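pinging the channel bc i need a second pair of eyes. not urgent but kinda urgent?? the chain im working w is below, pasted from the shared doc
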Amino acid sequence: MYNVVKANITNLDEIVHVDSEVIGNTSRRNFIKDTIERGCCIVVQEANNIVGFLTYDTNFFDCSFISLIMVSPSKRRKGYASLLLKYMINHSPTAKVFSSTNCSNVRMQKVFEANGFIQSGKIENLDEGDPEMIFFKSTY
């Protein structure tokens, strides 16, 4: 059984744990804390344990921009990223939702496409030799 909800500050340690499983450190703790406090962090729970999260803001040309989608490595390929994206689309504070991933991250590109996002451009020079692909979906 799963549950997708807005995160609250009591979830911080569990969310940071998921993030550190993926990136290998807790360097984004303050960023994640800030998104929780602003109401811009969503979690997916399996049996009351957080297995993934999504962070966003609305500073991208007054549109929602998903900055992180993280799922615990042991819980991947079970649809949790899609659940987070669907929740975001259904509860977005703006009519347009954007996100991005590296050209090398084919798995995430497929997740975006499977959830109705379309490619909306590319940004060079963020990660050397690995352009960032922008994805878009309307909430209408």
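so Residues 23 and 132 are 18 Å apart (CA to CA). and Residues 12-23 form the longest helix (12 residues). — does that match what u expected or am i reading it wrong
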